[in-house]
Structure formats: structure tokens, C-alpha cells
Request: fold
Amino acid sequence: GAVVSQHPSRVICKSGTSVKIECRSLDFQATTMFWYRQFPKQSLMLMATSNEGSKATYEQGVEKDKFLINHASLTLSTLTVTSAHPEDSSFYICSAPMGVSNEKLFFGSGTQLSVL
Amino acid sequence: RKEVEQDPGPFNVPEGATVAFNCTYSNSASQSFFWYRQDCRKEPKLLMSVYSSGNEDGRFTAQLNRASQYISLLIRDSKLSDSATYLCVVIAGNFNKFYFGSGTKLNVKP
Reply:
């Protein structure tokens, strides 16, 4: 069964609204979670690393005020796309590492965001 | 320069063929390496880890060349169900970040 739960799986929203995506680790604690974005026919692009109890670290070129990440507990990380625009339409997917050295990566099922 | 680079393909092969993908990585301090498989609009799934000594899992063989900073995946006796995008993944950096290649698309045809 799934070890990382992500929802919603699909969101359609109007331009200018904010959208929150949740990512939960099931049956294990995740001090770190990764957020990726994937445009059609492209690879997953790491957006940010979510750290429980501290600020997220963002990859170069990713606006932290645009993509708000909160990791308030050991099992939940959220990504909020603020004031979404059509160019933010993409497939967003979270993941959590697991294992002795965090060498295994488990993914949520992804969220397809469409901004009209 | 991208952390991980792959040939996007597509590789179109007949059933039963042997096909190989390569992937190069830029950070010489990278610690761990994997191949993931992703079907269209689904989450990636771990196919296999890649060890320095090379490793095999059924029809799949993975190899790592640290000197040249590349990893490879060999698929023997291709099946229709092998059609997917294969992602090369490297763990690097202070926070053990997982970096993905752009993926190589494989189409196995009857």
C-alpha cells in the first residue's frame, strides 16, 4: 500500500486563487519531504526541500513567496501555490525519503493543477 | 549544468530486444544512484538501486562508473510492459537531495 498520501489528485482553479496540496507520510515519520514539479514531457524538477520544524530550502529559481511550504509535523507537509496563474499549471508531486540512510524515496500520487 | 543528464529518446525497440540507457551526473561527490520507472502521469517507482560493483535483477542490469560519472541500465528480452520512461536518480548535496534526470522514453513494440 501507499506509504505517502497526497491530495488532492486534481485541482482546477481560477487565476489568482491559492491552492493547497497536502502530503502525508503513513506509518513513518518524515523529517524531510521533497516537492517536485513536472511539466508535460519533462522530468521532475526539484522545487524545494521541506524540513520539519524549520524553513524549507528552495532550489534556485523557485519563488518561496509563490510556493509556500509548511512542514508543521513529522507526517505532514503542505505546498500552497499562491495567486496561481496558468503558467503554474503542472503536475506537482511530493516524496519522502526513508531507510537507514534515507536512501529510499517514496512518492505521493501527484496533483495535477490546472489554472484557468 | 544539470545535475543529471539523460538522452530523452524515445527508444523504439521490438519485443525481445536488448536496450541500454546511459545517464551522466555532474557532482563527483554523489552518494547513491537509482533507476526509477515512470508511467504517464503517475508517480515514479523505484526500479533498482545502482551499486559500484554493478547489480542485476532479472532482465535488468545496472552499472556505475564513478571515474566517468555515469550509470547505465540494460534491459534484456524487452516486454511490451517495459514501455515507460526511465529516470536516472542521483542523491547529492548536503541535504541528501534526490536529483532526477529528464528521463528516457522506451517504447517496446510487438
Notes: The CA atoms of residues 17 and 29 of chain B lie 35 Å apart.
